[in-house]
Design goal:
The complex is a heterodimer of chains A (about 110) and B (about 110). With about 110 residues, chain A is mostly beta strands. Helices cover about 0% and strands about 55% of the residues of chain A. The radius of gyration of chain B is 13 Å and the shape is globular. The chains are: A mainly beta (about 110), B mainly beta (about 110).
């Protein structure tokens, strides 16, 4: 079975509800942030990104909010579906590489 | 349309054995990366190669070596495996060093006994 993701913070939501996953980043000079989704047994997949000159960006059913004052990033998923169940990671750019957060497990129940 | 391909998918090693994890990308990306993923610790950067011919240490390089064989391939070598290197290893690539999002491989699950 999948051992990655044990001991992660977990968010449980009912199907159809909205989900909000939060992330605190460390470097106030970071100017690029990304959210990734990782399903069991797979590599992380790009969801949405945002640059530091923006505070909000929307995709299909997903919105990323950036609060540079408190170094906080959030991912909002509208009308959460069973297929959204996964571990979600935020990442911040550090010169020429990304630094990842520890992740949040999203569980969707019917 | 393979993206990033990692081999092998699974491997069991005895302590002290050596092995090389292979990674290849077909997107003509300049930068490539090796991460390890452990329970509750997210993805930690081992080594990266910002461009062909260059490699740099990441957050957890000890016990590993890398080779950027050409633009497509970036290998990770464990010279003398230790149980602490039991992990899931991910290779990734990106177009430029300024980063526009990584493409990840599907991972190699390594167990060292």
């Amino acid at each position: 079975g999948e051992s990655v993701g044990l001991h992660l913070p977990t968010l449980s939501v009912q199907e159809g509800d909205n989900s909000i996953i939060n992330c605190a980043y460390s470097n106030s000079a970071s100017d690029y942030f990304i959210w990734y989704k990782q399903e069991s047994g797979k590599g992380p997949q790009f969801i949405i990104d945002i640059r530091s000159n923006m505070d909000k960006r929307q995709g299909q059913r997903v919105t990323v909010l950036l609060n540079k004052t408190v170094k906080h990033l959030s991912l909002q998923i509208a009308a959460t579906q069973p297929g959204d169940s996964a571990v979600y990671f935020c990442a911040e750019q550090d010169t020429d590489k990304l630094i990842f957060g520890t992740g949040t497990r999203l569980q969707v129940f019917p | 349309n393979a993206g990033v391909t990692q081999t092998p998918k699974f491997q069991v090693l005895k302590t002290g054995q050596s092995m090389t994890l292979q990674c290849a990308q077909d997107m003509n990306h300049n930068s490539m990366y090796w991460y390890r993923q452990d329970p509750g610790m997210g993805l930690r950067l081992i080594y990266y190669s910002a461009s062909e011919g260059t490699t740099d240490k990441g957050e957890v390089p000890n016990g590993y070596n890398v080779s950027r064989l050409n633009k497509r391939e970036f290998s990770l070598r464990l010279e003398s495996a230790a149980p602490s290197q039991t992990s899931v290893y991910f290779c990734a690539s990106s177009e430029t060093r300024t980063v526009s999002g990584y493409t990840f491989g599907s991972g190699t699950r390594l167990t060292v006994v």
